[in-house]
């Protein structure tokens, strides 16, 4: 099976690298392109077996499974270019949340799916969110789930929870990176610890926390209970968090959903929905 990737920006490159490093595919099974060809060639330099094509059309003509990894505003244009050369044997996958599988099916007649990856997939971890079109053949559903099992935990979701699910698995790493950086900055500001040491300690703490959860030693609530000893120092810190966090995370989800609605408006114009 030949796998095409149209767009090798941040997420497109992460997808290619994760699939290869996770041994889901061999480099020679990948056909890629990018508007700036140099970006695609950079991937080929790391994985010489990867084939680089000059256009989305060439990728589609030489692939069975095609990932469209471009910005939402560019998806419709890419689909229009490749659609005449797709057959019922192809499967087209978009990785962007504002475009539904129903919209994809209005432009192409083959199997379609949406797979929303996460930067955590680069470490062969995290979740990949999947939604399949009504015409998506069972073989493609099975193929996609098997592919992404190598780099993540594939999870099929319904359309109505796409945005919030993406907020958690795709935006979440950036949100928690920001919170951790603020945590580190506060430690440096309020104590004699230096930034480098604080960064090492915080990073290793996050890695250890992830391992505790992954291995099932604790759930989030039981982990907090174990660390937060009655009358102890951790409890005093928790009191501050409870008092000062307020509705910050509610506001985060409100902001992401507001931007999502804005993106939907733009893509709906293109897909005439």
Write the layout of secondary structure elements.
Layout: E1 3-6, H1 10-21, E2 30-33, H2 37-46, E3 51-52, H3 56-61, E4 65-68, H4 72-82, E5 91-94, H5 101-105, E6 111-116, E7 127-132, H6 138-149, E8 153-156, H7 162-190, H8 195-214, H9 220-227, H10 233-244, H11 248-271
Parallel strand pairs: 1-2, 1-4, 2-3, 4-5, 5-6, 7-8
Antiparallel strand pairs: 6-7
Helix pairs in contact: 7-8
Protein name: Late competence protein ComER
Domain Pyrroline-5-carboxylate reductase catalytic N-terminal: 2-97
Family: Belongs to the pyrroline-5-carboxylate reductase family.
Task: Explain what this protein looks like in three dimensions.
This protein has 2 domains: 3-157, Rossmann fold (3-Layer(aba) Sandwich); 165-252, ProC C-terminal domain-like fold. Helix 7 packs antiparallel against helix 8 (195-214). It has 273 residues and is an alpha/beta fold. It is 55% helix and 12% strand. Strands 3-2-1-4-5-6-7-8 form an 8-stranded mixed beta sheet, with helices on both faces. The longest helix has 29 residues, at 162-190.
Short description:
The chain is built from eleven helices and eight strands. It is of the alpha/beta class. The chain has an eight-stranded mixed β-sheet with strand order 3-2-1-4-5-6-7-8, sandwiched between helices.
